[in-house]
Specification:
4-stranded antiparallel beta sheet, 5-stranded antiparallel beta sheet, about 220 residues, 20 strands, mainly beta
Length: about 220
């Protein structure tokens, strides 16, 4: 109908701030400052929009910063660690164990192949869904002020307040890029990849990097 509709105005979503969204199997999943909400897409535009809180006993008071979907699993970054939710079974819980992010604030999540990468208060954690194990160093690495993580089959990119870190998954090593390498600003808050180019968003603007140039050596 070529018009916009504010869903929160006709629902009971407790938060006006939506930090991330994901779409799967006829539903929109909205991460907010007061939990996760499921929107039935077929009801949008009708008199009553189907919106329900997800896992309210565990998540209704949680700030959810980021969402990442792998098949039927929805991974969430929260103030108290990472939460994984099975959308098909309507079950979920916080990740636990002696490894992983524990209760560390998790702001950003990205998945590639069978590995899910988490950006926490203290660094990067990685979980292999096939082996059900957490990766050891050097994949597990300490970084301060992580803003964004983007995983690819060849590399993992981590945007921080001190530039960008690239993890070469084949060589198992990290490389830092800063303004000395051409970044417009060391504070990297967003990352996007298109073919052989990668884009870094900063408070001072965008930097485009031909990361897959065959003549370039890290």
């Amino acid at each position: 109908k070529d018009r916009w509709q504010r869903l929160a105005s006709k629902s009971r979503i407790l938060s006006r701030r939506v930090n991330d969204v994901a779409v799967y199997d006829g539903f929109l999943w909205a991460a907010t400052d007061f939990g996760l909400y499921r929107v039935t897409l077929s009801t949008i535009g009708k008199d009553s929009v189907g919106i329900t809180p997800v896992q309210p006993k565990q998540l209704l008071s949680e700030t959810i910063y980021d969402l990442e979907r792998t098949e039927n699993l929805l991974w969430m970054g929260t103030r108290y660690g990472a939460f994984v939710y099975d959308m098909a079974k309507d079950t979920g819980g916080f990740l636990s164990g002696t490894q992983g992010p524990h209760t560390e604030r998790t702001r950003t999540i990205s998945a590639s192949d069978s590995v899910v990468w988490f950006g926490t208060t203290y660094g990067v954690e990685a979980f292999d869904m096939q082996t059900k194990t957490w990766l050891d160093p050097p994949a597990r690495q300490q970084f301060a002020n992580i803003n964004f993580v983007l995983a690819q089959p060849e590399a993992v990119w981590v945007g921080t307040d001190a530039g960008v870190y690239k993890y070469n998954r084949q060589r198992n090593d990290w490389r830092q890029f800063t303004t000395e390498d051409g970044l417009i600003d060391n504070r990297v808050t967003a990352i996007a990849v298109q073919d052989d180019w990668i884009w870094f968003g900063t408070p001072s603007g965008l930097t485009a990097f031909h990361w897959n140039d065959p003549h370039r050596i890290d």
